[in-house]
Amino acid sequence: MKKTLIALAALASTAAFAQSSVTLYGVADASLSKVTDKSAALSSAGAMNNGTSRWGVRGTEDLGGGLKAGFNFEQGLSLNDGTLAKSGAGEFGRAAWMNLSGGFGEVRLGRTLNPSFYAAAAWELTGAANYSVVVSQFGAVLGGIRNSSQIAYTSPNMGGFSATVGYVLKGNSANEKAKVDLNAIYANGPLAVALGYNKVQDAEKNVHVGARYNFGMFTLAGGYMDPAGDAKGFSIGGAVKAGPVDLVLDIARDTEAKDTDLLVEVKYPLSKRTFSYVALLRDGKKKAGALGAAGDDVTGLGIGIRHNF
């Protein structure tokens, strides 16, 4: 009997383990970057990198009845010297959250990319690269990219449509100001359309809407941005696939400041998880952007390689 009970316990333990999964993942991105009036440098988390080098761990557990629990912890890091590249005050500033998901959708709790960011990423041509002109020109419209202590609900995907509502309580804000952050996204086949909105209590709202359509060999995308304050404008761009090479030309203009940022990106796949890239970003001088302060007319060049694991 004792041997039977031990065998059953071992079997139960194995079955429970089989219902859980933990994944180690990350990005290694190294770029030789040159910006106007600055010396060339090797970078792994800068404005002329395609993405920020990072590592993380995520996992899910099947709780039964269609319900799952999950988590994600993520750190940025430097390939130059191995130090952490923080995104916020914490060691895991890029992501530190848990969730419950099922047929009802998902509830996510903790520090995570905010709904407004996911709205822009749904249609932006570079896949939300560090050198994106949308972020360079209108980064404020995203409301900080990440929210700490966020309570978020994402609806189930209904024929390509989903929506997320995020909220940060007053008690979790240093200035005792609550924040609401939301998106509505339709992504089905060649078409993606998204709306992002965020607002801190007693402050002005940030709103943006954008769309992307894939015609096959050519993709067209554009958006309208209305961040808090005087800034306002649009982005428009196109992507062409020439054999294995992806070419992007993207422009973002602040019509109030009369400032234009321009990006040319070339990507060449080396494998399913690795690609090389060249990016040229022209940062307009009328306002501060990804590369320089207001009054500076700056150009950045990045030649790099990115590996996803």
From TrEMBL:
The entry describes its oligomerization and partners as:
Homotrimer.
Record keywords: Cell outer membrane, Ion transport, Membrane, Porin, Signal, Transmembrane, Transmembrane beta strand, Transport
| InterPro entries associated with the record | Gram-neg_bact_OMP, Gram_neg_porin_domain, Porin_dom_sf, Porin_Neis
Q: Which residues form the signal peptide?
A: 1-18
Protein name (Swiss-Prot/TrEMBL): Porin
What is this entry's stated membrane topology?
Multi-pass membrane protein
Question: PANTHER family from the xrefs?
Answer: MAJOR OUTER MEMBRANE PROTEIN P.IA, PROTEIN YDDL-RELATED
**Sequence ranges assigned to domain Porin in this UniProt record:** 6-282
* Organism per entry: Hydrogenophaga bisanensis
Database matches in SUPFAM superfamilies: Porins
Its primary localisation, in coarse terms, equals: membrane
Q: Where in the cell is it found?
A: Cell outer membrane
Segments spanning the bilayer are none
